[in-house]
Amino acid sequence: MFLGLTVLLSAPSLADAQIKIEVPEPGGAGIPIAISPLKNLGGENQRLGETFADVVARDLDLSGYFKVIDRGAYIEGPDSLSPEEINFQNWSVLGALALMKGGFSLDGDTLTVEVRLFDVAQRKQLGGKRYHGERKDLRRIAHRFADQIMLFITGELGPFNSQIAFVSNRAGGRAKEIYVTDLTGAEITQITRDRTLNLGPSWNPAGNVLTYFSYKQGGPYPHRLDLSSGRDSRLYPVVGYRSQWSPDGAELAVSLDQGGNSDLFLISPEGRLIQRLTEGSDIAISPTWSPDGREIAFCSNRSGNPQIYVINVNTGRSRRLTFKGDYNTSPAWSPKGDLIAYTTRTGGFHIMTISPTGGDPNEVTAGEDPSWSPDGRYLVVSQRRRLYVASKDGRSVKQLTGGGGDDTSPAWSSRLE
Amino acid sequence: MKEGSARKMRRVRGWYWRLGCVLLITVLMSGCPKKTPPPSEAGPSGGLGPGLGEGNIPPSEGDITKGRIGGQGEGGPLQDIHFAFDSFELSSEARDILRSNNDWLRGNLQAKVEVEGHCDERGTTEYNLALGAKRAKAARDYLVSLGTSPERLSTISYGE
Fold first, then answer.
1. Given this model, what pLDDT does residue A215 score?
2. pLDDT score recorded for residue A25
3. Which of A65, A147, A417, B37 matches a 20 to 30 Å C-alpha distance to B101?
4. pLDDT reading at A54 higher than 80
5. Hey, is A217 helix, strand or coil?
6. Buried b vs exposed e over A190-226: b needs ≥16 C-beta within 10 Å?
């Protein structure tokens, strides 16, 4: 799943032109963009060129920044690639402000992709990339270039070359298994096959290890699964509900439950107890790290109902963060550090964000169990048992999964290599 | 400690095989529309435990209501108890039910019981799991206070 992919940075001939397109907000009308299928420059399989365009178009739609112009309307085919060959008039009449064009060649299993983004009005290249990989890397290359398009247009790399782990009963029966999807929501891989309850997935920073909680040995014991080797092991001999890797990957914060009393602990990735963080008979669950690794937000009912708290890992001192509402759970600290998202219950579930220093929360969208994108601009949430991707201000909300079963507890990975 | 709990559960199944007399109490909160404990916990007959949670009578929000007959399905000797929303406090009605369950346990000393904690969709996943554990513990502790040996009781939370 995480195999080698080499990328050559843009050559001088692909030098970026000045961006003339105004940077929009996600959820607005969206920048009209045309995503042309890639030209086949050698080897067979024209479908790869269309698959690439499908993935990029889906990512850009999900971003909320773009309005992808339907491919059926395109006048010009994939063959013209250079700014001299492209008839920009054919794209401006469609209303396109930006245009993706490129080509691929397949030599045996070796795939080369060269792809560019153009400013249609200026008739200039905004940026270009050349990628080398294997045939199976095509979708990942497409996600990477979608991230580049986000960089060209918004000034910040996109989050689409990543994965989302989640819990679903889509295999049928009463079991819940862990699944992983790419950001199109179309490439879904079943990870566990235990036919029991598997809950609370969480990624290590490198994105090649999942921790989760499985009932396969009786109660919900923490497990770790190395995705590259397939090795699965019980992480700690006490049941619990959620773990989260520290930003440096050196330790995990985990909620463990000893006979009906949940508390937060730090354990090593090998399952050695490092430190106990909370004491007492109240519920303490759902740890989430600040990006600097100094603090952990969590959920506790110590006030009499569930609220979000922040604890300093070194001093052990904690402070209450949420005061509005009587049911605030499942915090998620943005990788940018500026916001903590959580679920509030007010006649249905809603995702809120609040500054780590407190203040008034803002509503994002309906849903529960938020998880941040690696760029801190989006949240994946579970809404009526389907996964949705929302911009952090809630102006763009797009469905990611649905139909196969009840999809819950999403966990967004960091960017893949 | 939890290792012990896992062993205990396997022993529970062993009792079932030998005596056909294992009972599970499902501790339910009011308003549970549907409970589906996992297949791996299914008893050998398929009628044990996991089938328990299904088909509960959905009561009105926040009410503490009478559960249906638990244990081994309709007519079984053990009854479910219910909790108010976001609560693991035993109501007087829940205590009455647990007292009658305890009476039955006193007359059936070979039986072992796994107390299941459940919550419903009105809560979020992880909080439900932690709350379910507190509910199971509350029921277990009360049974112990009435004289049931802790050795005969184990707890597990299934959350939603």
1. 96
2. 73
3. B37
4. yes
5. strand
6. ebbebbbbbbbbbbbeebbbbbbbbbbbbbbbbbbbe
